[in-house]
């Protein structure tokens, strides 16, 4: 893959950092809310619909800030880059479901179980979960972790930092924090390194978004096929 020059931020409106932070912060706030609500005797079945609300809020915020995402203004991934993104995404998926030793995770997660009381899958919940994980979360997270934080660690003027110029310090810190965000922290670090490498090598945030989406989409299909809800 050839490293492309990064789009100039000259036309970006003020507030480009909040545009990448706020959707991610909202997403994390919903995770915190989901941890607190069971203390109020709200059933796990009711909490499953909280994911739909979380995705809806993130989508609304991404739409509100859409004009500030200069790195996503045009889809710049060609066939070869798309093949690389798909390969990275599938590799991360395979590693994700295998890097699950006890020391590689924070406790035990119950995950997201879309089945109803009779044991049948509620496809409304399942499809919302897959769509959110494969289409919304990759855009939101890549805007925060790769577009913003990875480059901001190099310079506060992060939009002027070419992905290929990111150093090992920023790469390591971002991958570590990305791992800590996930219950499978070790797999998270590996995924963070993979997506960052793809971003830095290709110069395209869309490539990282594609890889992330492939990973999450493949994981969702695998979870539904095998019933390993704790991976969700």
From TrEMBL:
- Superkingdom of origin: Bacteria
GO terms for biological process?
CAAX-box protein maturation; proteolysis
Q: Which residues cross the membrane?
A: 21-42, 48-65, 77-97, 126-145, 166-199, 205-225
UniProt keyword list: Hydrolase, Membrane, Protease, Transmembrane, Transmembrane helix
* Pfam families, A to Z: Rce1-like
Q: Name one GO molecular function term.
A: endopeptidase activity
- Statement: the UniProt record of this protein carries the keyword Membrane: yes
Asked if the keyword Signal belongs to this entry, the reply reads: no
Q: Which residues form the CAAX prenyl protease 2/Lysostaphin resistance protein A-like domain?
A: 126-217
Record organism? Pseudoduganella rivuli
Q: What is this protein called?
A: CAAX prenyl protease-related protein
